[in-house]
Amino acid sequence: MKKLFILLSIFFFQLSVSAKVLDANVSYDWISMAQSDRESMVSEIVSELNNSDCIPDNLTKKQFNNQFKDQLKDKENKLHYYQAKLKFLSTNDYNISGFFKGNILIMYAIQYRNDILHNYYYDVLGNLRFVDYVSYNYPEFPYFSKQYYRDGKVAAYFYYLNDNMQFIFDDKFKFKGVWQNKSMYDLNGKVVLTRGEFNY
């Protein structure tokens, strides 16, 4: 009986060690984390994303175009371009954020208040490039989203740990970067892109 208790204790101890869950209330600092901790965090998130099924898989181009026909071209591109260049704007109708390479605006994203489970990404000419489907537990952290190209194929996965930390993966779950505050970092903690604020 004592041996069984010891074996069960070891088993439950191992489960408690391996069942580490990311806490949305903890403030993680990507830059100062040890490399092994970064890699462990990324692996844990990939595992969680692989087990989620509340967002559709690939859409056909026809399905995508039918669903998002009103968003294929930003009808207020000039206004949104100007607002995005300001790096942040929140109106009664939407949030907007610009994405920059250096000081050059390369893209902007809009989240409409009457459509909070989608984010629309436009190039600077107002052409829709990507759409995010956000998980239904939004805005409770952590939540995630799938990003689709205009042809309906999955472009990327996003995992939102909290207001200040969002992880990005490609369509094969390969880590692409983590947004912490206004900067995107690679796995080694180097800045690769900056953005304005965006209140998801």
Share of helix among residues? 10-25%
Tally of extended strands? 11
Quickly count the domains. Answer: 1
- Please work out how many helical segments DSSP would assign: 4
Cα distance spanning the termini: 54 Å
Order of helices and strands: HHHHEEEEEEEEEEE
What is the arithmetic mean of pLDDT?
83
Shape annotation: globular
Strand order of the largest sheet: 2-3-4-5-6-7-8-9-10-11
- What structural class do the secondary elements suggest? alpha+beta
Unreliable runs, pLDDT <50, ≥5 residues?
Answer: 1-20
The fraction of residues in strands falls at 25-35%
Radius of gyration: 19 Å
Strand count, sense and barrel status of the largest sheet are: 10 strands, antiparallel, barrel
Structural write-up:
The protein is an alpha+beta fold and 200 residues long. It has one domain. 24% of the residues lie in helices and 34% in strands. The chain is built from four helices and eleven strands, in the order ααααβββββββββββ. It has helices at 2-18, 35-50, 61-67, 77-85, and strands spanning 89-90, 94-101, 104-112, 118-122, 128-134, 143-149, 154-162, 165-170, 175-180, 183-185, 191-195. The protein has a ten-stranded antiparallel beta barrel. A hairpin with a 5-residue loop joins strand 4 (118-122) and strand 5. The radius of gyration is 19 Å and the shape is globular. Mean pLDDT is 83; it is low at 1-20.
